[in-house]
Amino acid sequence: MEPLAERMRPRTLDDYIGQQHLVGEGAILRQMIESGRISSFILWGPPGVGKTTLAHIIAARLECPFYTLSAVTSGVKDVRDVIDKAQKNRLFAGGNNPILFIDEIHRFSKSQQDSLLGAVERGIVTLIGATTENPSFEIIRPLLSRCQVYVLGSLEKDDLLQLLHRAITTDTHLKRRHIEVREYEAMLRYSGGDARKLLNILELVVEAEAGDTVVIDNETVNARLQQNPLAYDKDGEMHYDIISAFIKSIRGSDPDGALYWLARMIEGGEQPEFIARRLVISASEDIGLANPNALLIANAAFDAVMKIGWPEGRIPLAEATVYLASSPKSNSAYMGIGAALEEVQRSGNLPVPLHLRNAPTKLMKDLGYSEGYKYAHDYEGHFVRQQFLPDALMPSADGTSAGAAFWHPQPNPAEDRLAERLRALWKDRYK
């Protein structure tokens, strides 16, 4: 039997609950749907507010081919295969382009998003993307420029109550029992404005009760959720939501917030190595050179957790969490490697300058490989000026190009010291 949330998925706009600013009378998406013509767009909002449902309703209303991909499980090949199918089926689309719905599109890599561009631009498919993350940060600019972004909000209390009432009174299986909801607060609190979670909670509580009569109050809901992994779906969206809140609390220098989300993961049965890995990533990405000890602490916490396990493993994880959240922040190394990768993708395989090449044979030495290389340790201060970038990335002779610069030190005591040393060595760089 399908889960209640799937059985209650609306099939028409009239059954759709919430987001009236988009689908209410005269709203932009309703007008677009009723006109029979839609353009590519991205739905941005928290989990369980109707993004996927809205995409299905649109496809059904327009009676056009509908393809769906999950960014979690699909690669570039899957994208291309779907585009090929869509191109072949355009003749049967009834005048409308096939719709390609991509759930969690923010998880697509740059190359995966690039593979969509041509099909969207040529109108082979109409793209509908769904994301819980800010599209301006997670979607590449060329694709974002071809899509309108519509923002969906968490469902309001009245929306959730309407959803509960509809499920209890119209679902075939729930109607067989007499369900009395005396208190709603716990269900609403646990759902967090997420319709799917709310219906999952309702189904869990109802299925756990024996007999034809089910009485639901806050005590019952709290008891059932504390006994059930639904309170923390470590394989679903809550898994990603809470780890996101955890990392953002560390990045935002709030140890209290970070400890709270750490406790939520521990209580929910999250794998300790998953938490420890994210701490190592955060130490590199968010603290970086502002406090290099952060990476050492995160690695030490990872090792400790793997050695001692639960429940004591919570202590080194908490120690690392507080240390990282309290540390000064810098993403200069993260931004630097990103800028360097963009340059490599743009300029391709630029030749290595001869003096930097490896010369293991006499022939290569005769050809000039390594000739002119200066061994830094032979010079005062273990430094000598010489070229380390490909010719194409060096400053131009006429001064029109300043050359490539990938690492930009950020203002904190640790990087100030590094930048000061580099400025003393290079004079004209790292200003």
What does this structure look like?
Strand 3, helix 6 (110-121) and strand 4 form a beta-alpha-beta unit. Helix 13 runs parallel beside helix 15 (272-287). The chain is 50% helix and 7% strand. The model has no long low-confidence stretch (mean pLDDT 83). The radius of gyration is 28 Å and the shape is globular. With 431 residues, the chain is an alpha/beta fold. The protein has helices at residues 4-7, 20-23, 28-35, 51-62, 76-89, 110-121, 135-138, 141-144, 157-170, 185-191, 195-208, 218-226, 237-251, 255-267, 272-287, 293-308, 314-326, 332-347, 362-366, 413-426; strands at residues 41-44, 66-70, 99-103, 126-131, 148-151, 178-181, 213-216. It has a five-stranded parallel β-sheet with strand order 2-3-4-1-5, sandwiched between helices. The chain folds into four domains: 19-151, 3-Layer(aba) Sandwich (Rossmann fold), CATH 3.40.50.300; 157-231, Helicase, Ruva Protein, domain 3 (Orthogonal Bundle), CATH 1.10.8; 237-326, Zinc Finger, Delta Prime, domain 3, CATH 1.20.272.10; 356-426, no CATH class.
